[in-house]
Design goal:
mainly alpha; about 55% helix; about 55 residues; two-stranded antiparallel sheet
Length: about 55
């Protein structure tokens, strides 16, 4: 089974996307959030959290 297709994986990815949208982040460079891998989403979120002071 492809790990990226499991429901828990998709739920985690959706959760990260929702958190980023709440922070006003909709894209990374030219890519929409849904086009990013979960690793890329985690990196964007970590950077955004640092920029928010937390």
């Amino acid at each position: 089974m492809d790990f990226e297709q499991t429901p828990s994986f998709q739920n985690e990815k959706d959760d990260l996307i929702e958190k980023l949208i709440a922070l006003g982040i909709y894209k990374k460079e030219a890519l929409h959030l849904f086009e990013l891998t979960i690793t890329e989403l985690e990196e964007v979120y970590a950077q955004a959290a640092c920029n928010q002071g937390g």
